[in-house]
Amino acid sequence: MKTLTAFFTAFFIVFLCTPIIRRIALYFKIVDIPEKRKMHTTPVPLLGGFAVYIGIIVTFLLFPESFRSIWPVLVGATVILYLGVLDDIRGLSAKIRIYVQLLVTAGVIGLGVRISFLPHSFLGDIAEFIITLIWIVGVTNAFNYLDGLDGLATGSVVINLFCFFIILYYLGQFALGLAAVIIMGACAGFLPHNFKNRSKMFLGDAGSTFLGFTVAGMAVSGDWATDNVVKLSIPILILGVPIFDMMFTTIMRIKEEKIKNVIEWLKYGGKDHFHHYLVDLGLSQNSAVLLIYYLTFSLGLGAIMLSNDTAMEGLLTVLQASIIFCIIGILIVNGKRQQQSKSS
């Protein structure tokens, strides 16, 4: 009952307060203007992520045990949210965004949230710090890039957190599992507004980076298995789609000489993400979103089944997922070449 109560509390808070936040965004003209690299054709209000944040914070106050399980991540994510709000309103340089993300992530790691799988030593601690830094900052930006179609990023987070929750419940980590349910409910409450036509609202960079940072931190906070390989494999599988999108897009941009460094990587915007390719290949936007939902849930099921397995099963499952993504990448590149040859 507590789990259901927490879910629906967060759901209805976000569902009811999103129209209010939408009016505020419209009043202050905080809107996403259509341009060549974007899929929408009319201005859409931003700050949807702030509505999600309100629902999460209020529900956490009602269930303080869940807040205690994730408070360092939530504090860091709050800073990332306000950084994103500034970016949505004024536009911040890529350097400022990456420096703040690195600084905030370092602070969260200093509070004890980090990947732990190496022997405790000076070099081991340094390596874990660097890996955790790359993981959180990478996943944060991966979700920002994933937020390119209506409902894609928010719905993906719901599926990701559902899979995390099942494993956490099975392993008896109830406080962190309740935190996952609260965030899941908040995202579910925003989804109907993200899909509307006349009164649509976007997460904005604030919302997508906030959710990315939160999910990345939760992936580090959970104790997923006793075996280190399985412990690392579970978050990689559950978050496989945004990781693939970021890696595939980065490889293609480097290959096509569109970017040369991290700052250019952050600044570059284009219709060259996984979901864009699916639409270019003939799927409708809603069909592309559903396909990515199915793929995300499929990987999540693999992670759930893996939670009680050994290192060998962990390696084989990640290898299987990698092969699937390689096939998808090959099909996308092939489809892109065929389109280019037809157009020329």
Walk me through the structure.
The protein is mainly α and 344 residues long. It contains 14 helices and 2 strands, in the order αββααααααααααααα. Helix 2 packs across helix 8 and helix 9 runs parallel beside helix 14.
Key structural traits:
single chain, 344 residues, two-stranded antiparallel ribbon, 1% strand
Subunit organisation of the chains: single chain
Tally of helical segments: 14
Run of helices and strands: HEEHHHHHHHHHHHHH
> What percentage of residues falls in helices of 4 or more residues?
over 70%
Largest sheet: 2 strands, antiparallel
Number of strands: 2
Strand content: under 5%
Distance between the termini: 60 Å
Q: How would you describe the shape?
A: globular
Radius of gyration: 19 Å
Uncertain segments of ≥5 residues (pLDDT<50)? none
Structure, briefly:
With 344 residues, the chain is mainly α.
Write the layout of secondary structure elements.
Blueprint: H1 2-27, E1 31-32, E2 44-45, H2 48-62, H3 64-89, H4 94-110, H5 122-146, H6 152-171, H7 174-195, H8 204-221, H9 228-238, H10 240-255, H11 262-267, H12 274-280, H13 285-306, H14 311-343
Antiparallel strand pairs: 1-2
